[in-house]
């Protein structure tokens, strides 16, 4: 056996023994049905996807994908600075700028790539960055690659962030708008005030907020409350890809220096056309309003059954179980009863906080929400 194969086998064995080995499962989305999926021929209630507005299965986006392919073809054919940047991309960038008030945008094939490219291109080993403890792996990976000094503050603790800012005078503060595993909101306005008052940028990963949080007013994320905003298309927008939004100067810098942008095939123009349609569908607020009703209904159903949720106001509703063996048991029982819920274990979440990550979408019915709450109550009791 080769040395590398031996190393791989050892690591897999250790992960298996600790009960933390990750494996894929083949699942089929039911077309037109964001609240269902099919596993080994059996239909489950889908409470695990990030398709908050049900757009991934919507007739509008299915139509837009065909239209995009007819207009522009399927592939972009090259990286953006060669021949891969087209009207499809420019129109999407323009729509995102209009929706958020930022001057310019830059498209990537995934949020992971956008986040890590942003961090490693803007920052270097002379840079200091202050970031929330719970920011996404893609931001952390980019920061590690940049060599920047990373100072992390306790989750959503503005006082702790201020102490780090006063001491280190960082180039940037980094947070998420809606935290992916807790579903809670960052104190964006306070962090922006802190950044501005200290000559730093505020960078907000809005992966789980765009299309979900209100536009304008309290809890919005746009150019009025951050310097850079990352929007991903795989969540509320129901498709794929991502954009970094910011000033003309900032985006020009990234176009010229971001290796992940320069040396990677551009986002497919058909995908850009789908995302453009998705952005337009989220503008009127109707789907957001429906989602808010589903969230409220689930919280009431959970409360009536004594389930202790974390108090999130977003479609991400975690229920901390703690012990990984108990989580595995609850997860098995939920699946057997027809409910597919995210079972999230360390290291994705901190040790001791293994949890069910229940995600809601506009297609969930009152009856489904009540049935899930009943089943959670049963599974957690024994
Ligand atoms: N940021 C956050 C907060 C996320 O949850 C994710 C996806 N898990 C990403 C970025 C990466 O986005 P994408 O899935 O488009 O790569």
Topology of helices and strands:
Blueprint: H1 3-17, E1 27-30, E2 33-39, E3 42-47, H2 59-72, H3 80-84, H4 87-100, E4 104-108, H5 111-122, E5 128-132, H6 137-146, E6 149-153, H7 158-168, E7 172-176, H8 188-197, E8 201-205, E9 228-232, E10 242-246, H9 248-257, H10 259-262, H11 269-282, H12 286-304, E11 316-322, H13 324-336, E12 339-344, E13 354-359, H14 366-381
Parallel strand pairs: 3-12, 5-6, 5-7, 7-8, 8-9
Antiparallel strand pairs: 1-2, 2-3, 4-10, 9-10, 11-13, 12-13
Helix pairs in contact: 2-11, 4-11, 5-6, 7-8, 12-14, 13-14
Bound molecules: 4'-deoxy-4'-aminopyridoxal-5'-phosphate.
What brief labels describe this structure?
13 strands; alpha/beta; 44% helix; single chain; globular; Aspartate Aminotransferase, domain 2; six-stranded mixed sheet; seven-stranded mixed sheet; 382 residues
């Amino acid at each position: 056996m080769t040395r590398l194969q031996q190393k791989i086998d050892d690591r897999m064995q250790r992960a298996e023994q600790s009960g933390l080995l990750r494996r894929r499962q083949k699942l089929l989305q039911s077309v037109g049905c964001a609240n269902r999926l099919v596993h080994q021929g059996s239909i489950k209630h889908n409470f695990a996807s990030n398709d908050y507005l049900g757009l991934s299965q919507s007739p509008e986006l299915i139509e837009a994908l065909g239209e995009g392919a007819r207009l522009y073809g399927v592939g972009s054919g090259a990286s953006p600075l060669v021949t891969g940047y087209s009207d499809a991309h420019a129109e999407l960038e323009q729509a995102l700028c209009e929706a958020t008030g930022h001057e310019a945008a830059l498209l990537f094939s995934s949020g992971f790539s956008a986040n890590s490219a942003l961090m490693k291109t803007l920052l270097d080993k002379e840079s200091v960055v202050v970031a929330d403890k719970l920011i996404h792996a893609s931001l952390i990976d980019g920061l590690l690659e940049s060599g920047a000094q990373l100072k992390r503050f306790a989750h959503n603790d503005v006082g702790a962030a201020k102490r780090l800012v006063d001491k280190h005078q960082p180039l940037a503060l980094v947070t998420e708008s809606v935290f992916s595993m807790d579903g809670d909101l960052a104190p964006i306005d306070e962090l922006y005030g802190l950044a501005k008052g200290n000559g730093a940028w505020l960078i907000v990963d809005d992966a789980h907020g765009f299309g979900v949080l209100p536009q304008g007013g309290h809890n919005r994320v746009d150019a009025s409350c951050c310097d850079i905003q990352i929007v991903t298309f795989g969540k509320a927008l129901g498709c794929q890809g991502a954009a970094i939004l910011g000033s003309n100067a900032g985006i020009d810098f990234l176009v010229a220096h971001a290796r992940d942008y320069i040396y990677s095939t551009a986002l497919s123009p058909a995908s850009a056309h789908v995302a453009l349609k998705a952005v337009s569908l989220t503008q009127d607020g109707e789907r957001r309003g429906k989602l808010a009703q589903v969230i409220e209904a689930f919280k009431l159903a959970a409360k009536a059954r004594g389930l202790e949720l974390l108090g999130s106001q977003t479609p991400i509703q975690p229920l901390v179980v703690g012990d990984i063996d108990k989580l595995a048991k609850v997860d098995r029982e939920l699946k057997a009863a027809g409910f597919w819920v995210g079972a999230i274990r360390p290291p994705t979440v901190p040790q001791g906080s293994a949890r069910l990550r229940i995600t809601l979408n506009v297609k969930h019915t009152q009856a489904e929400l009540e049935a899930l709450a009943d089943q959670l109550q049963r599974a957690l009791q024994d």
